[in-house]
Amino acid sequence: MRNVLVLLAAALLACLSLPVVATESHVALVRGVTGQVTVVRGADTQEVEVGTQLQVADRVVTAPDATASIVFLDGTMLTLGGSADAHVRDYVFEPKAERYAFSLYMSQGSAIYESGKIGRVAPEAVEVETPQATVGVRGTRFLIEAGGP
């Protein structure tokens, strides 16, 4: 229950942060961070801070007591709880060409997902995987629990 409350508080803080602005090569911005959060990009690992831009293929890893609030270009919100490991496998948001894709793999930890435009206009293009299951988006908000005991 505590983890869910921490995730909800982090999501609320993300909504109150700065507006989302990113370059075309970036698919998301980190809007809120508590504790130690890192992004793994290829062979490089760097500390995450508010404003860090994420790309396709990035892995975001949170320490046990850390959280990260991420907003994608279409408005999709992902709030990671402690000990999370989330890999952005694919992301396409091209409304003029009607091309959409959102693929996320959560190997461990917990997160709250809230649909943006992709989830509303092309829910079949959204896929969230965990070691135990693949979630197809048919709603707009859900809690993910992956790995662990």
From TrEMBL:
Residues 1-22 form the signal peptide. Residues 58-146 form the FecR protein domain. The keyword DNA-binding does not apply. PROSITE patterns: PROKAR_LIPOPROTEIN (PS51257). Keywords: Signal. The keyword Lipid biosynthesis does not apply. This is FecR domain-containing protein. It comes from Coralloluteibacterium stylophorae.
